[in-house]
Amino acid sequence: MLIDVTLPQLGESVTEGTISKWLVHEGDIVNKDQPIVSVATDKADSDLPAPAAGRVAKLLAAEGQVVPVKAVIAQIDEGAASAPTLSVSPGPPASIPAPPQPAAAPAGAARPAALGAIATPTVRRAALQHDVDLASVQGTGERGRVTRDDVLRAAVGDQVAADGDHAQVAPASQQPQPPPPREARAPAPQPSRAQQIAQLVGEGGGFVPPVPGVGYGAFKVPAYRPAQGDKVVPFTRRRRITADHMVYSKFASPHVVTVAEVDLHRASALRDAHKERYKAEGMSLTMLAFVVVATARALRETPSLNARVLDDAYVVFGDINIGVAVDSPDGLVVPVVRRADELGVRGIVRAIDDLAKRAKNAKITIDDLNGATFSVSNPGLKGNLFGGAIINQPNVGVLRMGEIQKRVVVVESPDHEDHIAIHPVMYMALSYDHRVVDGVAANAFLWRVTEILEKAEFEV
């Protein structure tokens, strides 16, 4: 019996994936749950397991091909598990043709529906966000590939055309002659939420968003001229995704940053008293763990920071899932500590250690990266005084730790006398989305995080 292998939903908002590499050939015998293909998405890379044991009957997608979620990419003959293996070395199937390339077509000719535009998942997502039909976009990339700049140019062109179509018509008495006839055209698409905001900012449609690498209004980005000693570093897929994410976040969310000074005298003393015990157990008791615990508690008391924005509403989440920014071979990733308010210091330490080690070894999965409701960023030992981080969409807030330095502070004694002391101090910066988070709530949240850290009443 033939069993279909379909592309699963690899995380929220993921609608398609790219076949990176087939790990089997047609005719190979596979076991159930054996990895058979590597798939790349906008979130991360994943190896998909075989749904059943048997012989690989057909591979229906080529390496490099973009396929939608739920599409059948292979078939396994479940009744042929005992047949001899035809090949043993993994690699791309020789029988699968290369992804089809767009052939030259007469102007106005429709692209066949089965072919579609050649574009990456990131570009396809940008097209959806800007209501751009990829089939109508002329690609300027290699072999006709549609780039993100192509989509943005098309979006700006559609918006200008739509504005022209909806221009106010003067009374007949004020019109010296009728306008020349215009060619029939399809109705302009309904503007997206981002385009509607752009119209409002531009007082009725005069605003044209800047296009990265192209320019804004009369300003044009100068062309790059190579010089001796220059080194051109191509974007990796992870860097491209990160760049797109950051640009989108700054455009979509009105960022506000507020900063607090935290006296870590008691928290540092508590850490020093227990870090060797944790080290003996193979874990690292860091200040990041205390900050995540304090953040989780403060979010439970100030739930408006534990939210996301929808089109005409916002959601306050019941669970508190904190994304912790960690480094990986492919760049920064933000795996998630789930239900962080239920874990305590030891549970948080164990979760962060596990995520950091797997990120370092490139073992982070799609599930690890999904579902954050708030984020914490730690620049590490070589950090700086403080900095405003960009919000990790679709969160409405991110807390960035600063460098811990010894400073002179004023300490009030029990007899209400002030004394000068030298304590470890850290600045924390909260970036929040002013669409749904007001200053009162943001300040109350940051004040509460500071209070929890300064009291250091943690069970370790």
Order of helices and strands: EEEEEEEEHHHEEHEHHEEEEEEHHEEEEH
Please tally the helical runs, counting DSSP H or I stretches of 4 or more residues. 9
Residues in β-strands, percent: 15-25%
Oligomer: single chain
How much helical structure, as a percent, in the residues?
A: 25-40%
Q: How many strands, what sense, and barrel or not for the largest sheet?
A: 7 strands, mixed
Q: Count the strands?
A: 21
Taking all residues together, what is the mean pLDDT?
81
Low-pLDDT sequence parts = 83-92, 94-100, 102-115, 165-170, 200-206
Structural class by sheet pairing and helices: alpha+beta
Rg over C-alpha atoms, rounded to the nearest angstrom: 27 Å
Span between N and C termini? 56 Å
* Gross morphology: globular
Tell me what you see in this structure.
This protein is 26% helix and 22% strand. The protein has helices spanning 121-129, 148-165, 193-201, 237-252, 265-280, 287-301, 344-360, 366-369, 439-455, and strands at 2-6, 16-22, 29-30, 35-40, 45-49, 54-59, 66-68, 72-77, 215-216, 219-220, 255-263, 307-309, 314-316, 322-324, 326-328, 331-333, 336-337, 374-377, 397-401, 405-412, 418-433. The strands form 6 sheets. Strands 11, 14, 17, 18, 19, 20 and 21 form a 7-stranded mixed sheet that branches. A 4-stranded antiparallel sheet has the order 1-8-6-3, with no helix packed on it. The longest helix is centred in the middle third of the chain and has 18 residues, at 148-165. Residues 83-92, 94-100, 102-115, 165-170 and 200-206 have low confidence and may be disordered.
